[in-house]
Amino acid sequence: MKATIQVDLDSLWTYRRYLNQESAKGAIDPVYSEGVEIFLDIFRRNSIKATFFVIGTDVLIPEHARVIKQIAVEGHEIANHSMRHSLNFSSLDDETIKEEIKNSHEVLERVSGQRVMGFRAPTFSINERVLNILVELGYVYDSSVLPSFIAPLALNLAHTIIGGKLRNVAGANIRFANSPLCLYRPDIKDMGKAGQGKLFELPISVVPSFRLPMHSTYVFICGRWLFDWGKRELQQRQIPLSYSFHGIDLLDINKYGLKLPLFGSIEKRKNICEYIVKRLKSECELMSTLDLVKNLERCA
Ligand SMILES: [Zn+2]
Prior knowledge:
Blueprint: E1 2-9, H1 12-18, H2 30-45, E2 51-54, H3 62-73, E3 77-80, H4 94-112, E4 118-119, H5 128-136, E5 141-142, H6 150-162, E6 200-201, E7 206-207, E8 212-213, H7 216-222, H8 224-236, E9 241-246, H9 266-283, E10 285-286, H10 289-296
Parallel strand pairs: 1-2, 1-9, 1-10, 2-3, 4-5, 5-6
Antiparallel strand pairs: 7-8
C-alpha cells in the first residue's frame, strides 16, 4: 500500500483569527520555532520523506524562512498553501486567487530551492476556478478535496462550540462528499468528478465506508481506532493513503493561550502521532505527495 504524510503548517495566527484573537505582527510563530522540529525529529527517526504545505506570508519572516530551508535540506517536499490563508479562499475573485498562489509560489521556491508543484487550499476551500488557475500556473497536483459529508457538518458544530470567525470559514464543500477517493484528473466543469483535466487531484483520505475524516484532528478527538479502521478499509480497497497532520498538532497549545476543545493533552497527541507514523512506515510504502502522484499517475 502506497502512502504519503503531509503537514499543513498553519501557524498559530491562523487559529487566533478563527477565534477572534489578536496576534503580534511579524512575531516568530511557535509552529516554526517548536512544532516543525518535533515533526522533523519523528520523520528523521523513521527515515520518512513528507510534504509540508506552507503559507507564503509566514516565510517572509527570516527565522521562518530558515526553518523552511531546513525542511527542504532534509529532503521533504515544500508545497503551496496560499499566501495569506484566507478564510473563504474559493470565493475570492480570480485575480486575487492568482496572486495568492503566485506570490506564495515565488517565495517558497526562492527559500526552499525546490520547484513547487503541489497546492492545498486553505481550509480545503477549493473550486473549479482555483483549479484552472493552478493549471495555468503549471501545477502538477492539488490536494484539497476532502470527500466527506461529515467534515462540513463538523465545521458547523465547531462554530457552535467555539464561536469566533469560524462561521466565515468555507471549509470542505459538501458537494465533494461523493468524489473519488483515489488520485483522479478532475473534470474542469465539475471537479468533484473524474474527467480529462490536466491537473491531478489527490483527495485527503477518509474512512471509505462512511466517508469519515480520519486526519489527525479527528483521531485526537475520537481515538486511534479511527485511524486503524480507515487504514484497514483503504488497504482492503487498495486505495493509497494520504494522511494529514497540522503544525500545531505536537505543540503545547495551552502555553500559548489557545483553547481548542477535545484536542487532548500534548502527551496523548504525541503518542497518537508516533503511532500513526510508525504504522505507516512499517506497513506502507511512504513517499512525498509529489512522488505519490507521479507513481499513481499511470493508473489515474
Ligand atoms: Zn491550512
